[in-house]
Write a structure and sequence with these properties.
By secondary structure, this protein is of the alpha/beta class. It is 43% helix and 12% strand. It contains 16 helices and 17 strands. It has an 8-stranded mixed beta sheet. Helix 2 links the parallel strand 2 and strand 3.
């Protein structure tokens, strides 16, 4: 079968769904590759680069749709492109089926199967095909670059002969993929970075990247991300009010605000109101990554950059990934290639559209002349957090009672073992000669003392190997100490050698363990 990518017709779209390198991987799956002339030019991939990798270059989109059994695109197809689809053909692209119902019905009427890359379920096995995350990662990075391009100062603080430059303060609203990418870029540039998310469990991720998480003095049970496809759920009106109050408090101090909050199949929530913009300092920058869905900022204008009366720049671009077309195309084409790998289990160049597969079924919106959107919930929960039972703290009285009970149980056990041991020694003494008993008692005491020596070692210095060898070495040393005063020179030499070698084993074991522990220490 042939897989092809046309040139994107959406104005300003520079990405391409197939790169020369991804074409090589697709050919290894058994497919022949086709590309429309000029399709990769805006992303830096010439027709010659494709031809070098064995890709057929056709002159028009119509010729490509006619030649290809599988069409891979970036943007949803235009009506003209959808009309070119034919029965049995497979289209793979972003589609946003909830907002493009008429387009989905047209694809169904044409008899084509459609896999929407924006519908790939967020489960572990599908991460390699998660094109939304790939593009969000680039958007978060690019948002910081755009903010820096419109910000009149350094991100990092400096002390120079010409004066002191304070570091920029950046607030990232939403700690999803785009938010985390923005946080990482901002902190690496030296800014003081703050982050907020309605899911307090992401605080550790934010802090691990060097940013400060903004907490609210408000507790609300959040819906598990598994039930919402890995996205944040809708907050209550009370929580939203507390959230806005916190943002009003932060707004005058922030130099750059990057908003990334989106809820699937809904308009973007309004998080940065007009009065917050008015309270910001002149020269501040707002980058609204939710501009395509209405924007998180009240004053955002889609696809435009505006400057407010008080000198705040608001950027509402919706093509951040397209502004880094080479990187975006590389990642997106890799997502497509992984999808094709799942669709071609035999690597024979023939699509096996297995609707029993969670990932393929979840992403398929039309198939076999039917609309299959919305998909059923995946059998595997998406990034589900484990429910933790609250740990009840014990009172001092309960702790004391447990310690007393443990001491009594330990004492009872030791007394029982000593009584049994003494009875066994007495029993052996009744039938064994006195010369045997002298050595037997020394052996028993050696074992007992060796056990006590090892039992007293702190657990942090314990390794199973060292515990066993030190126990054996302790027995050897005690036995050798008794024999070292023997009248026989040979026995004395052997005892001294035994003490020497066993001591090396014991001290060496502690030294090795100490070095192992040092590997896990910061200093």
């Amino acid at each position: 079968m042939k897989i092809g990518s046309p040139k994107e017709v959406f104005s300003g779209e520079n990405r391409v769904a197939m790169t020369p390198e991804s074409a090589v991987q697709l050919q290894k799956l058994g497919y022949e590759c086709v590309i429309e002339t000029g399709a990769g030019a805006a992303a830096g991939f010439s027709d010659a680069a494709y031809q070098e990798k064995g890709v057929e270059v056709v002159k028009t989109a119509a010729a490509l749709f006619k030649a290809a059994d599988i069409v891979a695109k970036v943007r949803p197809p235009s009506e003209a492109e959808a009309k070119r689809l034919r029965r049995g053909q497979l289209l793979i692209s972003f589609f946003y089926p909830a907002a493009n119902e008429a387009l989905m019905e047209l694809a169904r009427d044409k008899g084509a199967s459609v896999i929407a890359m924006d519908m790939v379920p967020r489960i572990s096995r599908a991460q390699k095909m998660d094109a939304l995350s790939s593009m969000a990662n680039i958007a978060g990075y690019r948002a910081v670059i755009e903010a820096g391009n419109n910000f009149g100062r350094f991100f990092t603080g400096q002390v120079t002969a010409a004066g002191k430059v304070p570091p920029a303060k950046v607030l990232v609203v939403g700690a999803g993929v785009a938010g985390l990418a923005a946080i990482g870029t901002s902190t690496s540039l030296g800014a003081i970075t703050y982050a907020f998310d309605v899911r307090p469990e992401v605080a550790e991720q934010v802090e691990s990247m060097g940013a400060e998480f903004v907490f609210l003095d408000f507790e609300e049970e959040q819906q598990d991300g598994a039930a919402t496809g890995g996205y944040a759920a809708v907050s209550s009106p009370e929580f939203a009010a507390a959230q806005l109050a916190k943002f009003r408090e932060l707004a005058p101090d922030m130099d750059i605000v990057i908003t990334t909050a989106l809820i699937p199949n809904r308009e973007a929530p309004e998080l940065w109101t007009k009065d917050m913009v008015e309270s910001m300092k002149p020269g501040s920058v707002i980058v609204d990554l939710a501009a395509e869905r209405g924007g998180n900022c009240k004053l955002t204008v889609k696809d435009e950059k505006i400057v407010t009366d008080n000198g705040v720049t608001i950027i509402g671009y919706t093509d951040f990934p397209s502004r880094m077309a080479a990187q975006s195309s590389t990642l997106y084409s890799t997502n497509i290639r992984h999808m094709m790998t799942d669709l071609t289990p035999e690597k024979d160049g023939v699509v096996n559209h297995n609707m029993e597969d969670d990932v393929i079924r979840g992403a398929t919106i039309t198939h076999a002349g039917e609309i299959t959107f919305p998909p059923p919930p995946p059998k595997v929960a998406a990034i589900a957090a484990q429910k933790k039972e609250p740990i009840k703290e014990k009172t001092p009285e309960e702790i004391r009672a447990e310690e007393v009970a443990a001491f009594k149980a330990q004492t009872k056990q030791q007394v029982t073992l000593l009584a049994i041991g003494a009875a066994l020694v007495l029993g052996v003494g009744l039938i064994a000669p006195a010369s045997f008993m002298q050595h037997f008692i020394v052996f028993v005491l050696s074992v007992f003392i060796g056990f006590q020596v090892i039992w007293g070692v702190a657990h942090s210095l314990h390794t199973p190997l060292m515990a066993v060898t030190n126990a054996i070495s302790s027995i050897i040393i005690l036995g050798a100490l008794i024999q070292i005063g023997s009248s026989s020179l040979l026995i004395t030499l052997l005892a001294a050698a035994g003490i020497f070698m066993a001591s090396i084993n014991i001290f060496g074991g502690f030294l090795v363990t100490r070095r192992m522990l040092a590997m896990f220490q910061k200093s």
